[in-house]
Specification:
By secondary structure, the protein is α+β, with helices and mostly antiparallel strands. The chain is built from 8 helices and 23 strands. It has helices spanning about 230-245, 280-290, 305-325, 330-335, 360-375, 380-390, 400-410, 415-425, and strands spanning about 20-30, 35-45, 55, 60-70, 70, 75-80, 80-85, 95-105, 110, 115-120, 125-130, 150-160, 165, 170-175, 180-190, 200, 205-210, 215-220, 255-260, 265, 275, 300, 395-400. The chain binds arginine and zinc ion.
């Protein structure tokens, strides 16, 4: 039997055990006026051990039928778990495709603590779909945890006049028949479920390339019409700059989407960062685009390593400012260091807490950790560490221990105590560091 969780102790029911998804094919139609979503998800996976039963994550929505390799399969629902019993047991190593036909009104997750509302969020003219950390299950059956990445196809049908945006590139459409328009998108690089999107609504689009020739797409809701060219240009310019700092851009297109929303929310959706309810400044565009390397291509296995995403993307904001000669990363670091009574000193960022995942410390103290490392090992080695990290773990997963090991290997130094005080200990680290005894 496949476990009901993938094994993240902080989020015990997220994801599922027993199989590995290789591909999601989502064929979905959404009608904003009725908030009705209907369609079929075909999920291709490999059994990791013999399976008489396995789960997918799905919250709400009505499941009409489930088939496994074309044969009807029994299923039951319990909370956010969809439990599937194939007619015959799946053998370890078997490749299978489970097809789920479903419909209903997606309900966004109203997160506890600092998580806000996320998942499939209806807007006045469509939906803004941003799912970190575990909101993919609000609109498709998924192995909803970053430890399982897969490629995605999307066939999205919306009322004529609206645009449906998903990850990757538009491979067909838009085609309009009977007042409905279908968009076919494909993300051929592995992606974690929380980065999948089907944001839709009334959008103005600009497509083209970045100065270095990468496909680029900007989309803005009517309210942000005057931002279309700016978002297109900045997203292109910043993506190109990061590719000189972090190494080759990992995906086949970049871009940015600005939607109208009641609250402010940004997410680094793979290939298409999304900004909801505000005009993104350069700093946040730099942040979300840096995530394409750190978080999207190199992904975490467990949520408590979140600083590997947020600390890196926040440090990228400082690097972008440094690049523009606004302020150096060193100056930002010193400014943060001078806040002697900041709450970040009481929250070690190396273990993001499930009840306070997106704590400011994970972002800021995470970024400070990288700056402390840069100070210790020097610019040349530091940027080599970032590039090697992005390259070695591209399209895969990595942990904090992997990062420490890499930094030690490339610098030839023992860095345990540096990472220990910055990531794992309460209290403000001493800075500048006390001179260490040479051995
Ligand atoms: N990763 C996003 C960022 O870079 C934050 C997402 C926060 N998630 C949430 N459910 N509030 O800013
Ligand atoms: Zn971020």
């Amino acid at each position: 039997m496949g476990a009901a969780g993938i094994g993240d102790p902080d989020f015990p029911s997220d994801g599922n055990g027993g199989y590995d998804v290789t591909h999601y094919s989502l064929k979905l139609a959404y009608t904003p006026s009725s908030k009705h979503l209907a369609g079929v998800a075909s999920i291709s996976a490999t059994a990791l051990h013999d399976l008489a039963r396995f789960n997918l994550d799905l919250s709400g929505l009505h499941v009409a039928s489930v088939t496994l390799d074309g044969a009807p399969a029994q299923f039951t629902r319990e909370g956010s778990e969809l439990m599937i019993s194939p007619a015959a047991q799946l053998a370890k190593g078997a490749k299978f495709t489970v097809r789920v036909a479903y419909s209903g009104t997606p309900k966004p997750v109203r997160g506890s603590s600092n998580l806000g509302t996320y998942g499939f969020i209806p807007t006045s003219d469509g939906a803004f779909v941003v799912c970190e950390p575990n909101g993919a299950k609000t609109w498709f059956p998924a192995n909803d945890h970053p430890a399982d990445k897969a490629t995605f196809d999307f066939e999205l049908t919306v009322p004529k006049g609206l645009t449906a945006l998903a990850n990757g590139e538009l491979v067909a459409g838009p085609v309009t028949t009977d007042g409905k328009t279908t968009f076919i998108w494909r993300e051929r690089h592995p992606m974690v479920t929380y980065l999948a999107t089907m944001t839709l609504g009334d959008f103005a689009l600009r497509t083209g390339t970045t100065p270095r020739g990468l496909a680029n797409l900007a989309a803005v809701a009517p309210k942000y019409n005057n931002q279309l060219d700016r978002v297109f240009r900045l997203s292109g310019r910043i993506t190109d700059y990061w590719s000189t700092v972090f190494g080759p851009y990992p995906f086949s297109s970049t871009g940015g989407v600005v939607d109208d929303l009641n609250t402010g929310y940004a997410l680094e959706n793979q290939t298409k960062p999304m900004y909801g309810g505000f005009i993104p400044d350069e700093s946040i565009i730099a942040h979300e685009l840096a995530h394409q390397w750190f978080g999207d291509s190199v992904s975490i296995k467990r949520w408590n390593d979140l600083w590997l995403n947020e600390g890196f993307a926040t440090y990228a904001e400082w690097l972008w400012a440094e690049h523009n000669r606004t302020i150096t990363a060193e100056q930002v670091f010193r400014g943060r260091m001078s806040m002697t009574s900041s709450p970040i000193w009481n929250y070690p960022p190396g273990k993001a807490r499930p009840d306070d995942l997106f704590n400011e410390s994970v972002y800021t103290r995470g970024a400070m950790t990288l700056h402390a490392l840069r100070q210790r090992i020097g610019d040349a080695t530091f940027f080599k560490v970032l590039r090697t990290w992005a390259q070695n773990h591209a399209y895969g997963h990595a942990t904090t221990d992997d990062f420490i090991t890499l930094a030690e290997r490339l610098s030839g130094r023992q860095l345990d105590s540096l990472f220990d005080v910055w990531l794992y200990k309460r209290g403000r680290p001493e800075w500048p560091e006390r001179p260490r005894r040479q051995t």
